[in-house]
Amino acid sequence: MELSSIKYIYESVTEDQSQDNEEINEQIRQQTCFIETNDNEKDFYPTIALGGTFDHLHNGHKILLTISAWLAAKKVICGVSDDELLKNKKGAELLESIYRRCFNVQKFLYRVRRNLIYHVVPIQNAYGPTIVEPDIQAIVGSLETLNGCRAVNKKREQFNFPLLDIFSISLIAPRSKNLSLENATLKMSSSSIRLFLLDKENSQN
């Protein structure tokens, strides 16, 4: 199944004499949402799923959560990786507790939309509720987790559950002459935040 571009997630490309068409096109490509669907594209889905670590909630997380909330008509199911699942992650000792991460996700979702049902639950594997709850229609993830979303569909197929439409969002910061090279190529990442905190802690010792 091929990816097909459907829309821009946000518009931050401005007409600037210092930017040529190639640079603008590159920015647009980095801001595109892709969808894999088994049917015609829908505006809303009764239930949307997503999952992740959601450690030190950052703009990348907030983009995924916001898109999920606005695609859902009734419910958002969000799986948050439990501590045991993350024990081998970089900077694991700096991870926020599962309670804190679930609380931050729930709090942010209510700020986005208050008229939905939110199930924010700890998960002990990569699939979470998506392989026990048949009544889910779509899943939201980053381009980095696209293969994981596809793996969810393969697992659902084994249980004869309906396959999910996949919304895959680019979370790479667009290049800009106003950004340093380091910031322009830095992916929004909880690991990056933890490593920054770890370096800061080490430099103070």
TrEMBL record:
It comes from the Eukaryota. Residues 50-194 form the Cytidyltransferase-like domain. GO terms for biological process: coenzyme A biosynthetic process. GO terms for molecular function: dephospho-CoA kinase activity. The keyword Transferase applies. Keywords: Transferase. InterPro entries: Cyt_trans-like, Rossmann-like_a/b/a_fold. PANTHER family: BIFUNCTIONAL COENZYME A SYNTHASE-RELATED, DEPHOSPHO-COA KINASE-RELATED. This is Nucleotidylyl transferase. It comes from Neocallimastix californiae.
